């Protein structure tokens, strides 16, 4: 996969850190076959390594409410995973969205629990959400253009997930969240939801917690796509950075569709890393779980600027900056492409 011609990243960090994250991702694409390198720093390093084996899990927290297709209110709940014994009060957070074709599934989905535990053990506040399931049983994957039913279901899921993002920001002090460092991820329909949140933050919906931004700093998609016909209307260079995993043997979301979405995202100037899972099926956590978790952790570390987050040793920031400087020297063409990123430093 080739590096994009130009990327514009709208985020909250200094110009130097914006450039560092972009060059990190681009160098990974150009040099390592779409594989992100580990962030540098002495182990154990918060947000990269497992530091907290024990977790505090709070189930059934209400984060919003929204109507179903009959107008009946649906209470929206989530399960929260936090590192037990952590004294840090400003931690990154990630919202995780289960799959099920917008028809079924719950926050107890095994893939999302695996991701939630992995991120929380590294110091995050992780939440796995329940959301409205408004599909009547149609197979939405691969529809292009999508049916009205699938669009309605996907939009409801997007709005509910955005309400969960805002819930974390609105209750940051209560749960020890850094409201400037929030990511989203999902599998299958949940991955499509994460993609929608990444590219459609200007449509926040009304599922709860009005006021805080719905914008995320990073989005992770496991086995999903966005219909090619929607790309021109949805994608622009100010959308959130995205990491995509797609199995080459996926029988639900064919690999070619995921690759097309990645191509569309890159063409729009959105920072995107696409990782093929060779021989992988649909949300192949049993086969590729270690790769998915590790690469997701590295991606979030880079694009949430966790080397410079509260609680990190100064040495972690220096090591990360030095690594980015080395990348820029090795790939001056990429560094020149990203030279203007600093003009968009923006706090959300």
Describe the fold and architecture.
The protein contains ten helices and eight strands. It is α/β, with parallel strands linked by helices. The chain has a single domain, classed as 3-Layer(aba) Sandwich (Rossmann fold).
What topology emerges from the helices and strands here?
Blueprint: H1 15-31, E1 55-67, E2 73-83, E3 91-97, H2 110-121, E4 125-129, H3 148-170, H4 172-175, E5 177-187, H5 189-199, E6 218-222, H6 231-234, E7 242-247, H7 255-267, E8 272-277, H8 285-303, H9 314-330, H10 332-337
Parallel strand pairs: 3-4, 3-5, 5-6, 6-7, 7-8
Antiparallel strand pairs: 1-2, 2-4
Helix pairs in contact: 1-9, 2-8, 3-5
What brief labels describe this structure?
348 residues, alpha/beta, Rossmann fold, eight-stranded mixed sheet, 8 strands, 18% strand, disordered N terminus
Quick overview:
With 348 residues, the protein is an alpha/beta fold. It has helices at residues 15-31, 110-121, 148-170, 172-175, 189-199, 231-234, 255-267, 285-303, 314-330, 332-337; strands spanning 55-67, 73-83, 91-97, 125-129, 177-187, 218-222, 242-247, 272-277.
Mean pLDDT over all positions? 87
Which structural class matches the secondary elements? alpha/beta
Proportion of residues in β-strands = 15-25%
Largest sheet, strands/sense/barrel:
8 strands, mixed
Classify the helix fraction into a percent range: 25-40%
| Structural Rg | 19 Å
Number of strands: 8
How far is the first residue's CA from the last residue's CA?
31 Å
Q: What is the CATH H-level superfamily?
A: Alpha/Beta hydrolase fold, catalytic domain
**Low-pLDDT runs:** 1-33, 337-348
CATH topology: Rossmann fold
């Amino acid at each position: 996969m080739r590096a994009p011609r130009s990327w514009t990243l709208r985020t909250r960090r200094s110009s130097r850190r914006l450039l560092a994250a972009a060059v990190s991702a681009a160098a990974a694409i150009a040099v390592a076959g779409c594989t992100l390198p580990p962030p540098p720093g002495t182990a154990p390093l918060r947000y990269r390594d497992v530091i907290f084996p024990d977790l505090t899990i709070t189930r059934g927290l209400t984060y919003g409410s929204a109507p179903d297709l009959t107008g009946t209110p649906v209470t929206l709940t989530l399960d929260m995973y936090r590192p037990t014994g952590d004294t840090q009060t400003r931690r990154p957070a990630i919202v995780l969205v289960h799959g099920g074709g917008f028809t079924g599934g719950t926050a107890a989905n095994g893939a999302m629990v695996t991701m939630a535990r992995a991120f929380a053990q590294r110091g995050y506040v992780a939440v796995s959400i329940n959301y409205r399931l408004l599909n009547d049983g149609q197979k939405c994957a691969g529809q292009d253009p999508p049916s009205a039913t699938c669009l309605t279901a996907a939009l409801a899921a997007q709005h509910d997930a955005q309400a969960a993002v805002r819930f974390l920001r609105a209750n940051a002090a209560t749960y020890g969240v850094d409201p400037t460092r929030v990511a989203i991820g999902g599998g299958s329909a949940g991955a499509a939801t994460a993609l929608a949140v990444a590219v459609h933050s200007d449509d926040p919906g009304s599922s709860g917690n009005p006021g805080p931004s719905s914008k995320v700093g990073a989005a992770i998609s496991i086995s999903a796509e966005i219909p090619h016909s929607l790309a021109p209307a949805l994608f622009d260079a100010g959308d959130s950075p995205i990491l995509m995993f797609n199995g080459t043997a996926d029988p639900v979301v064919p690999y070619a569709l995921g690759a097309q979405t990645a191509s569309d995202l890159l063409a729009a100037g959105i920072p995107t890393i696409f990782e093929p899972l060779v021989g992988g099926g649909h949300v192949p956590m049993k086969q590729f779980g270690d790769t998915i978790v590790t690469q997701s952790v590295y991606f979030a570390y880079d694009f949430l600027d966790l080397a410079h987050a509260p609680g990190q040793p100064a040495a972690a920031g220096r090591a990360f900056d030095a690594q980015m400087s080395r990348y820029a020297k090795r790939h001056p063409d990429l560094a020149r492409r990203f030279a203007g990123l600093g003009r968009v430093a923006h706090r959300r």
